[in-house]
């Protein structure tokens, strides 16, 4: 079966003896997520990155705008991930989104 080379690199780098995330405390899971993303995914260049704040009636939401190709302004991907709404962050999502 074909596996994308980038996905294969992530799978090959996984520690089969590591605890399941559900067996970790929230703090341990956050550290594990940060370590996994930082250790397995190299940063990718994009033309522009801009941090935004989106106001809502209850609170502000952090967002990040990536402009990969300024010559194609009509291309858009919206990526929303809450990491189980407990362990995800805008920083540890940066590399996979790029």
What portion of the residues fall into strands of 2 or more residues? 15-25%
Radius of gyration based on Cα positions:
16 Å
Mean pLDDT: 83
By secondary-structure content and strand pairing, the structural class works out as: alpha+beta
**Beginning-to-end CA distance, first to last residue:** 26 Å
Summarize the biggest pleated sheet.
Answer: 2 strands, antiparallel
Low confidence ranges:
none
Number of strands: 2
Inertia-based shape: flat
Helix percent reads 25-40%
Order of helices and strands: HHEEH
The total of helices stands at 3
- If strands are numbered along the chain, what order do they take across the biggest sheet? 1-2
Helices and strands, with pairings:
Blueprint: H1 5-13, H2 26-40, E1 48-55, E2 60-67, H3 94-97
Antiparallel strand pairs: 1-2
Feature tags:
98 residues, alpha+beta, two-stranded antiparallel ribbon
């Amino acid at each position: 079966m074909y596996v994308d080379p980038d996905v294969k690199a992530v799978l090959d780098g996984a520690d089969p003896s590591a605890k399941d995330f559900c067996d970790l405390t929230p703090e341990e899971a956050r550290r594990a997520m940060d370590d996994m993303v930082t250790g397995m995914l190299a940063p990718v260049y994009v033309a522009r990155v801009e941090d935004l704040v989106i106001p809502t009636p209850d609170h502000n939401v952090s967002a990040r705008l990536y402009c990969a190709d300024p010559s194609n302004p009509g291309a858009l991907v919206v990526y929303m991930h809450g990491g189980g709404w407990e362990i995800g962050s805008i920083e540890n999502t940066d590399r996979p989104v790029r």
